[in-house]
Structure formats: C-alpha cells, structure tokens
Amino acid sequence: MANSSPRLDVKKTYKLFIGGAFPRSESGRTYEVKNSEGLFIANPSLASRKDLRDSVVAARAAQDGWGSATAFNRGQILYRIAEMMEGRTSQFVDEIVALEGVTQTAAKKQVEDAVDLWVWYSGWCDKIGAIYGSTNAVSGSFYNFTIPESLGVVATFAPTKPSLLGLVQAIAPVLAGGNTLIAIASEKYPLPAITLSEVIGTSDVPRGVVNILTGSSAELAPWVGSHMDIDGVDASGLTASQEKNLRVAGADNLKRIFRFKESQSPARVLAFMENKTVWHPIGV
Amino acid sequence: MTFEYSSAPESKAIVKINSLYKLYIGGKFIAPKSGKSFITINPATEEVLAKVAYAEKSDVDRAVKAAQAGLKIWSKMAPAERGKYLYRIARIMQERAREFAVLETLDNGKPIRETRDVDIPLAAAHFFYHAGWADKLEHAGVGTNPKPYGVVGQIIPWNFPLLMLAWKIAPALATGNTVVLKPAETTPLTAMLFAEVCEQAELPAGVVNIVTGDGATGAAIVNHPDISKIAFTGSTDVGKLIARSVAGTGKGLTLELGGKGANIVFEDAPVDETVEGIVSGIFFNQGHVCCAGSRLLVQENIQEELLEKLKRRMALIRLGDPLDKNTDIGAINSREQLTKITELANSGDEEGALRFSTDCVIPSKGFWFAPTIFTGVTQAHRIATEEIFGPVLSVISFRTPQEAIEKANNTPYGLSAGIWTDKGSRILWTAKHLRAGVIWANTFNKFDPASPFGGYKESGWGREGGRHGLSAYLKGAK
After folding, report:
1. Which domain covers residue B379, as residue numbers?
2. How many folded domains does chain A comprise?
3. Residue A2: per-residue pLDDT
4. Which of A224, B166, B413, B434 has CB atoms 3.0–4.6 Å from B123's, for a disulfide?
C-alpha cells in the first residue's frame, strides 16, 4: 500500500427505475446534466417511448396487488419511504444544492418537506374512503354505498423544481390512492428523482408500483397521451400547450388528466380514484 | 281456455301538444333567428307530433347571454331561496306528472308504465333531493367556500329525456350555476314542457335556457367561449369528440357515456329473481339504457336451466302500444336506432351466434324490435363488445369466479354490472374486482338521486347524483 495517490470518488451511474430494476434506457441514449455553475455532473438516461411502454407493462402488472393491498399496509409502506428518505437526507441535499443552486438550508428544508409529505399522504390511505365515501339514503329497501377505489395506472409529470418535493407531491397521493405509476422526473434536475427511486427500491414498495423515468417531458408527453393502458395523468409539470396536446390524445381512452396547484390536499388523492356504488336489497 | 289482455290505454287528453315549440331563452319562448324548425314524431306510429325550433350558433349565443344575465341574480341569491325554487319545481313536476308521462311516452316511445312509475317520479325526486343541497354546499366535501362554474352547457340523450334533464339541471341550479340545455333531437317535448314548469315556478329569467336542435347545436354549446362547464350524456364517440374540443380551454367537463354491462349469474343465484333481474336489465326501456345488463355471464352448470326459464319469461313480455298500461316494451326511439340494432343483431347471426326472439306481433307502423337473446356468443363477437342500445342480450358462460371477472372487465366500458348469488362474501369479492361505477347485487337498473351514478374507463368522467355528483358542479371541487 505504498501508493499515495489521492482517492478517486466512486461516482454513481444514474439509471432508470422500471419494474423494480435499474436499467439504462433501451435506446442507449443519455443526456448531460450540469450543476448550477455549468459543470458536468452526470449522464442520466434519456428515456425512450419503449422505456415508457415497458414501465406501463410493469405498472399494470403491479396494479391489482397494490390496489387491493389493505390501506393499512399501503400506509405503512409510504411511511417506510419517509423513513428511508430521512436517512439519505445529506445525499438529497447535495444533489439539490448542486443542481438547483439553492442554499444548504433551502435544500434541507425541501428534503424535510418531502419526507413530511410522505408521512402526511401515508396517513390518508386508510381514511380517504371514510371521509369521501358514503352510504346513500336511497328511496327503497336497499343498502347502497359508494367507495373510492384506485383508478389504475397513472403517469406524472413533475415540475422542473423543486426537483424532489415536486416529484414527491406528484407521486405520494397517486400511491396513497392505490394506483401504480410512471413518474417522469424533472428534466433539468433529475438526480434527486433517481436517488428517490433507490429509496423506493428499499422501502417494501412492490416492484412495478413506482417506475421513474428521466429524459425529455416534451418527447414523452405525446406517448403518454396516446398510450391506451395509462388511465390518468398528473400534467402539473407540463406546459399549457403540452397539456392541451396530451388532453387531445388522451381523449382516445378518456384519460383522467389533472393539473394541481396545491401540494398537500386530499383532492390530489381523489383525482386518481373512481367512485364505485354498490346496491343490494334489504330483506329476510 | 286462454286469457287475453284487454287494451288499457292511457288517455292522451291530459296533454296539449303545441303545433310549434320555440326556444326557451331568458324566460321567454322565442323563435330562432333563422326561423328554421324540425319535426318530432311518435316513434310508435310515425305520426308527426310537433314542429320544433332549430337553434343555430346565433341562438346559442343568445341563450348564453341570457344565462349570464341569469347568473347575476341566481349566484347572488340566498342559497336557501335558491333551494326553494327547486322545491317548487319538484312539486309542480309532481302535480303535472301524468301530463309529463303521457308526453314522454308519445315523444319517446317508451311504455307509459315506465314514464309514469320511473322517469317522471325520479325526475321530480332529483329536484327535491338537490333542492336540499342548495343551502348546505359547505358540507358537500369540497371545502368551506365552494363556487359555481357559472354558465353550464348541458347536452342530453333521448333515452330518458326528462330524467336526464333533471340529472343535469337540478345539481347545476342547486350549486348556483345557470344552464343552457339542449335536449335530444328526437325527444325535445318534455324539455319544453319543463320550460313551462320553470315559468309556473317563477324561476328568474335566464336561469334555465333550453335550445332545441341537432349535433351542430350541441357543438355550438360545447365550443362557446362563455360556457365554463359542459355536462354531456350520450355515446362514447361523441364524448371523446367533446373531450378533444374542450382540451386546453379550461372548461369543466363531465361525461356519462356508453356501456356494455355484465350481468353475472353464479350457480347459487335464486333463479326466479335472477330471471326478473335479467329481463329488467336488458329489456327495461327497450334496452335503450347505457347501463343495461347487455352481457349475461352465466355459470356454465346452470346455463341451460336459466336460459329455459328466461325464454319462458320472455314469451310473456308484451310489446306494443306504449300508451297501453299493460305494455312492457314500447317502440324503438327512431328509425336510425332501429337500423343500428338490426345491423348489430344481424352481425350476431353472421358471426355464428344463435338468435332467439319471442314471436310477438310487431305493429305495422312505427319502429319495433322483438326481445332477443343470442347464445353461443364469444368475446370477440361484435354483439359482445359493441353497445347495441336495444333489447338484445348476449349470453356468455363462465366456469370460475375469476373467469367471470376477467370476462366482465374485458371491455373498454365500465359503467354498470350485476351480480346474482346467495353468498354475501362472493358479492363483495365480485363487486370489488369489477371495474364499473355502479354495481347492482341481486337487483338491477335501480336509480336514485341520492346514489352516485357514472362510469369507469371509457364510460365517462365524474358522477351524477349524490354528494359526488353535486361536487361536479362546484369549481375546484374533487
């Protein structure tokens, strides 16, 4: 061990998160991400249409299991994500500072808010039905109730920034409602999303429930819009014209498409739930 | 010795049909600018009932302006007073129920038994139910300060003309919106009678505006820049067209579209009740029901027995004069719809399914289709996948509950489904796995203003009825 060279960092290869695995884009494409000072940091994958389609297959396969898991179980898993994130705080802070060019304090606040948001949505899993379901007093000898259920497979476009908090506010409510998802990360600041996928990969989230793609929102949005096995889209991170085109294409299978202003609201959970009403006669 | 029914027609004398119906805009009946009109006929006799004004874009403009003016009064009115107008409307509809029932039967072709016992009472009940919401909106689950959209454009179908009007207008008004409504081209008359009810209730001018016309009239509503929300009930194809039209405009949109409901019968189902449920599921309202149980999924080991009883029951269905109080199946609403049903049923023959129709006497005039079931239907057949919107049932068998779910969900639609079994846990398991918005267990085709109605997947967006339906008329609401 006579060698006295300074130690070289082992850098991470930033990859996609599909079906519980961390593949590179099947297209072989990457794009360069620079820090706030314009210096190179990483070459994350530039996800392709095929990567999106693979993600939808993984999300669809996982949906029945996740959607019919008990709400208590889902709540525990979302809480587990918060636990795992907390332990990685410094890594998230470093990435946010490097990319967004914000202060340490601001970055730390963003991470803490993101962790707390997981905790908040975790608690909704087993309450949303009690608050927003109903028993309906119909005029006849019937028992009649309405319950919110998961919509299915949802795609989310996170805003450019805050890169981590924006992603969490998109995906946490979708998961709380029992949906599986494909998250398209902040195009400009994708690294916290990839680190979040590593957190999710170790938080007992069944594989395929969360899939995270990095790349171009503009490139992926039309394919999301026209994909017939995507049921809903959070378009908050898209431009108005991208959203309009998505809505036109999404009409082919009547996708539920929303753009949200509030980050912390049960409306974000309910947007991706369907209400089912069940009737049964009462008699002896 | 055979017993015959004597004819028992409801009298037409109770209703006075005008020779020409004008547009109802700003509290007045006014002629369209173009002076154009179209006719509406009685589909049971093909006799012309009346001429009806044809609204073009400029007339829709006038209606929207009137609705904007109405909004100034309506949205500022004390909510309790708004509610009292709706109570008034409900009461007047009840008072004039028979008149509405006869007129609906004449214009639509559906049996008087259904208009009298279902359509009209439910329509009045919708107003009564929503009246009570008007001053309780802060309890509707959409925050403490819910706001109306403003002017709402509403387009309704011909299968339940007055009832669909009530589903649309009652929640819109209760939440403080004003409306421009277009009834279906073939069934405008009860909407125009409803306009008279608005007059009798002294509803402020412009709160309800009714424009009659066709698809072009509807498009003028959908594309009108001063309309803040569209509510549409009709076909999935048109629903998608509307969704594309409003994309990027920021307009609210709710859609109640087509269906291909699975009525699932398990081996332990009470057979006689199930047969009644199947009949009501597909032959109620001539099968012109978006939530009809048009696919019968029956467990293989009881198929033979069930179908035998079903056929015996079908032979007792009485098709004929819709005004006769003993009639079960009335006229198909239009020649166009009859052509569509006939074409789809023929495709069943061509694709190898086996047709059974009752040999009832088909009247010489009007549009009719005998109650029909197809057996030997595969999931690929058009009659198993496409919405027929007529009295045609496709029978498909299954062996296991899992297979039933798979087949039931094998459709882009997701409006309704039925479950017939004696076992409670199986009902709940099946209901949980069905991707449909309304599930009837050991019953079918039940509707109530308090019960949210609407579809999963390509059957629509949003709900109508109950708190969930109400919230669709409140801005920012979810």
Report:
1. 262-441
2. 1
3. 61
4. B166
A-B interface: how many C-beta pairs under 8 angstroms? 108
pTM for this prediction? 0.96
Q: How many distinct structural domains can be found in chain B? A: 2
Q: Which residues of chain A fall below pLDDT 50?
A: none
Active site residues per annotation of B: 256, 290
**B317-333: average pLDDT:** 97
- What value does the mean pLDDT take over residues B123-151? 95
B366 and B427 in a single domain? The answer is yes
Lowest mean pLDDT among B11-15, B138-142, B316-320, B430-434: B138-142
- Whether B6 is covered by a domain: the verdict is no
In a domain, B447, yes or no: no
If pLDDT is split at 50, 70 and 90, which confidence band does B293 have?
very high
Q: Are B457 and A267 a contacting pair at CB < 8 A? A: no
B302 and B388 in a common domain: yes
Q: Are residues B253 and B267 in the same domain?
A: no
Q: Of A98, A81, A216, A244, which is closest to residue A157 (Cα–Cα)? A: A216
Residue type, A52: L
Position B4 scores a pLDDT of 85
ipTM score over 0.90, yes or no: yes
Q: Quick one: pLDDT at residue B1?
A: 73
Query: Which CATH number does the domain housing residue B309 bear?
Result: 3.40.309.10
What is the extent of the structural domain holding A195?
A: 33-281
Residues of chain B whose C-beta is under 8 A from some C-beta in A? 125, 141, 236, 239-241, 243-244, 247-248, 255, 257, 412, 427, 431-432, 436-443, 446, 448, 450-454, 456-458, 460-461, 463, 466-468, 476, 478
Are B240 and A254 a contacting pair at CB < 8 A? yes
Comparing C-alpha atoms, which of A74, A99, A234, A81 is closest to residue A153? A234
- Give chain B positions within 8 Å (CB) of A243: 248
Residue count of chain B, please give it.
478
Mean pLDDT of B108-124: 98
Q: Which residue has the tokens 């801005």?
A: B475
Q: H or E segment at B452?
A: none
B157: phi then psi, degrees, rounded to nearest 5:
-95, 180
With beta carbons under 8 A apart, name residues in chain A contacting B446. Answer: 138, 140, 142, 279
Q: Are residues B216 and B351 in the same domain?
A: no
Query: Are B226 and B370 in the same domain?
Result: no
Give residue ranges of A with CB < 8 Å to any B CB: 68, 131-132, 134, 136-140, 142, 144, 146, 231, 240-241, 243-245, 247-248, 250-254, 256, 266-267, 270-271, 274-281
Q: What is the structure's pLDDT at A1?
A: 55
Domain CATH for B110: 3.40.605.10
Q: Based on the domain organization, do B110 and B159 belong to the same domain?
A: yes
Whether residue A274 and residue B437 make contact (CB cut-off 8 A), yes or no, is yes
Same domain assignment for residues B285 and B425: yes
Quote the CA–CA distance of B440 and B427 in Å, as a whole number: 10
* pLDDT per residue as tens digits for the range B57-75: 999 999 999 999 999 999 9
Same domain, B241 and B386: no
H helix intervals, chain A = 49-68, 71-87, 89-100, 104-124, 128-132, 163-176, 191-201, 217-226, 240-250, 266-270
Assess if residue B14 is contained within a domain.
no
In whole angstroms, what separates CA B363 from the centre of its chain?
Answer: 25
Q: Is residue B196 classed as helix, strand or coil in its secondary structure?
A: helix
Q: What is the mean pLDDT of chain B?
A: 97
